[in-house]
């Protein structure tokens, strides 16, 4: 695992508000957070506490109403959408609850796509390697609708690790899976994370999954109440 001394993600006074029919709705406020290289961090809290919103802000998928986010020293809040997209492509991997696979592409093509966008020299070789790593060597040419939920999430994990990201963001990665499959996916995710020396930031409502992480923080009412 990488040294834990270097901050790779930092949030300063991070806040997010949206306009609702009842007026301004505060989703997050005054979030200060530092995540170090190689660390595994769980973000926990009840539904509606702001977990997924915080993950989206840390990953540069969304922009804050107030405060700043730094990834590897770069203030991503200052970047335009293209700049944030480049940063994500170069440094960040994602695993979502809903898999987010493209239905018209095979497992192999789904994993190759971000590699091709990043200009990889041999995207097919890299994609095959990652899919073999997650136990899908025999399923390369299958489309998402021909795969089980667990297999689809394995494809998503292979895709997330394909670009050798510094940081992996996972949002309820087992939310759509049965308990046995969920355990297999969590074991795989942490095994690969350790092997690749990635920093893992995981949103979950499951305490057993959070216990896999070195550190956890609890959100309630848009604020960190425990860390």
Brief overview:
The protein is an alpha/beta fold. It has helices at 51-58, 81-91, 107-117, 123-133, 149-162, 179-196, 207-210, and strands spanning 7-20, 23-36, 40-44, 66-71, 74-75, 92-96, 167-171, 199-203, 215-220, 223-226. It is globular, with a radius of gyration of 17 Å.
Structural overview:
There is one protein chain. This protein has 227 residues and is an alpha/beta fold. The chain is 34% helix and 29% strand. It has seven helices and ten strands. It has helices spanning 51-58, 81-91, 107-117, 123-133, 149-162, 179-196, 207-210; strands at residues 7-20, 23-36, 40-44, 66-71, 74-75, 92-96, 167-171, 199-203, 215-220, 223-226. The strands form two sheets. A six-stranded mixed sheet has the order 6-7-8-3-9-10. Strand 4 (66-71) and strand 5 (74-75) form a beta hairpin. 41% of the residues are buried.
What's the number of helices?
Answer: 7
- What would the average pLDDT be, to the nearest integer? 91
Rg over CA atoms: 17 Å
Q: Residue share in helices?
A: 25-40%
**Contiguous uncertain segments of 5+ residues:** none
Helix/strand order: EEEHEEHEHHHEHEHEE
Quaternary structure: single chain
Strand content: 25-35%
Shape: globular
Cα separation of the termini: 22 Å
The tally of strands reads 10
Identify the strand order in the major beta sheet: 6-7-8-3-9-10
- Major β-sheet profile: 6 strands, mixed
Structural class: alpha/beta
């Amino acid at each position: 695992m990488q040294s834990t001394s270097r901050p790779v993600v930092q949030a300063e006074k991070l806040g997010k508000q949206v306009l609702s029919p009842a007026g301004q709705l505060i989703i997050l406020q005054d979030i200060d957070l530092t995540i170090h290289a190689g660390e595994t961090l769980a973000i926990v809290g009840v539904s509606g506490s702001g977990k997924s919103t915080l993950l989206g802000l840390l990953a540069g998928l969304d922009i804050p109403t107030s405060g700043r986010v730094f990834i590897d020293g770069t203030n991503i809040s200052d970047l335009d959408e293209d700049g944030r997209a480049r940063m994500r492509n170069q440094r960040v991997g994602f695993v979502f609850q809903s898999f987010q696979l493209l239905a018209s592409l095979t497992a192999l093509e789904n994993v190759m796509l971000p590699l091709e966008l990043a200009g990889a020299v041999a995207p097919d070789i890299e994609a095959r390697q990652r899919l073999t790593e997650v136990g899908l060597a025999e399923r390369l040419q299958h489309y998402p609708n021909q795969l089980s939920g667990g297999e689809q999430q394995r494809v998503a994990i292979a895709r997330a690790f394909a670009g050798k990201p510094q940081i992996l963001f996972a949002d309820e990665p087992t939310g759509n899976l049965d308990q046995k499959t969920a355990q297999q996916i969590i074991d795989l995710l942490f095994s690969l994370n350790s092997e690749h020396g990635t920093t893992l930031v995981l949103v979950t409502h499951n305490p057993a999954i959070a216990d896999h992480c070195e550190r956890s923080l609890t959100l309630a009412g848009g604020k960190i109440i425990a860390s």
